[in-house]
Structures are given as structure tokens and as C-alpha cells.
Amino acid sequence: MWLAVTVSILGALVTMSGVLAVRDREAWALANKAYFISFAAGILISVPLLHLIPEAFALTSSAAFGLFAGYFLLHMLDRFVATKVCDRPSRAAYALGLVPLVGIGFHSFLDGIIYSVGFSVGAMTGLLMALGMVLHEFPEGVVTYTLLLCSGYAPRRAMMLTLLAAAFSTPLGTVLSYPLVERLEPPILGFLLSLSAGALLYVGATHLLPQTTGSRERFTWWALLGGVAVAAAITLASQS
Predict the structure, then answer these.
(1) Which of 10, 121, 190, 232 could form a disulfide with 60 if both were Cys (CB 3.0 to 4.6 A apart)?
(2) What tens digit of pLDDT does each residue of 73-91 get?
(3) Residue 132 domain boundaries
């Protein structure tokens, strides 16, 4: 158990390093928010399609239902935020960061469960799984923190929310799930993976990508391709 918890804490520290890398360059991040949003969209679209969805279907035949549920639930959350939470013009931009925060937070918690599953099989299996997963924590921290800044959150509040959702939730998922991991059947894990994939796919394709379609920045599509490239590299590293 302690090895799994240690690796999950390492993942949280990598996420924190991504936040700290952006914190000292907030003005630059805000000035280039269209590029960050495009980069985030590239990652959040590619990770489900290249990694999570194939894994989920390999574990359960019900993955399609989880995929639909994750996508639909995030859509409903987006609608709720837009009509109830951010119904005033002064708060409307908050939805840009709040919806991804929920999707990434759920995904990070699920990462903690996956650490538990990997290390319950064996130390080497857990370490191989952790390699690719830890690599994606850095851009996850950068993306989450920057989106909150671009949405108008104060820097300190954006940092705290990012650490809670994208960093601390991973070791929490490991600690809570490890005692139960032997009872976690592959179909259940597959359903949770597909649920996470649907949520992230909604955030990337439906919530973030339209934010950049009207942008006057000339090279946002390069940022989008950069996000796709990072996701593809992470997927290849986790499979090697």
C-alpha cells in the first residue's frame, strides 16, 4: 500500500510543480489564454480517445454507457453553472474554469484508484502504469490553474482549487480505494474509466474548443496540435 501512496503523492507533487511554473508568469498566461485553452482542449480530447476509452472497452462491455453518462453529466453541470451559478455577466466567465475543474478533479481521483489497482497486482506492474500517469500530472496542473486564472479567479484561490482538484485528490483516491481494491471487479473499473473519459471529452471538445473558434490569435491550432502531441506521447510512454 505504501508504495502506491508514495507514487500517488509523487504525482501530486508533479501537479504542484506545474502550478508553480505558471504562478510566476500569470500576466503572460492571461495574455496567451487562447493558446492555453487550445492546448488544454488538445490534451483533454486526445487522452480519452487514445487511452481511456480503449482501456475501458477492454475491461467492460458497458463502457459505452459510462462514456455517455460522463459526457451527459458534465453537460448538465455546464448548463447548471451557466444558468444558476453564473447567471450574472460579472460571473459568467467563471464557468470556463469551474466545469473543467470538476472533470479534472474526478479524473485525478480516479487516477488514485488506478494506482491502487496497479500496485495490488505487483510492484513492477504498478511502476509501469505510474510512469505514464505521472507524466501527465504536470500539464494537468498547468492547464487547470491557467483555466481558472483565465476565468477570473484570484491567483491564490485558483491555486488552492487546482491543488485540491488536480493534486490532493490523487493520493486521496489511493488511500480510500486501496483497502477495497481487491473487491473492485474489472467491469467496475472499466465503467469508471469510461465515465472519466466522457467527462474529459465533454470538457475538451464541447466546453473548451468553441472558446477558441472566434479567437483572433493566428496560431491557436498549433497549440491544439501541441496538446494532441503531448497526449500521444504520454499514451505511448504508458504502453512501453
Answers:
(1) 190
(2) 888 877 776 665 555 555 5
(3) 2-239
